[in-house]
Write a structure and sequence with these properties.
Elements: H1 2-5, H2 16-25, H3 29-56, H4 63-79, H5 83-102, H6 115-127
Helix pairs in contact: 3-4, 3-5, 4-5, 4-6
């Protein structure tokens, strides 16, 4: 769990400097094994959240699912202390909200005047 906390940004691979430091730092085998196993899994989970939110972003039929995934992504950021991913998630959600305003004329778009939609957005903001 601590090795996941040590990674600043899951979207960026190891820098050359960090690779060199790891080589000479005397990091034990267990630390390298933990990092090799946990890091790809956490990256996959983060990417899964992002992709799901992008796919579901402006469709009223799956609006509840979108909000549930957004809330799960916030919990992921909190559990693993992912500050960079939290910021990116907030930026993505803000962008998605902008897309809702732009594409209100589409048949399956989300109606922000609907009380249920407002309640779901408000609930997600409270989780944030």
């Amino acid at each position: 769990h601590q090795t996941v906390l040590d990674i600043d940004d899951l979207d960026l691979p190891d820098s050359p400097e960090s690779l060199l430091l790891k080589a000479v730092s005397g990091e034990d085998t267990q630390d390298r094994t933990d990092r090799a196993i946990l890091t790809p899994w956490v990256k996959f989970l983060w990417e899964s959240y992002r992709q799901c939110l992008d796919l579901l972003r402006n469709n009223s039929r799956v609006e509840r699912l979108y909000q549930d995934i957004a809330q799960q992504a916030f919990k992921f950021c909190l559990k693993y202390s992912r500050k960079t991913e939290f910021r990116k998630l907030c930026d993505n959600l803000r962008t998605h909200l902008g897309h809702i305003h732009k594409h209100q004329h589409q048949q399956t778009s989300i109606n922000l005047n609907n009380p249920d939609s407002q309640a779901m957005h408000f609930e997600t903001r409270l989780v944030q």
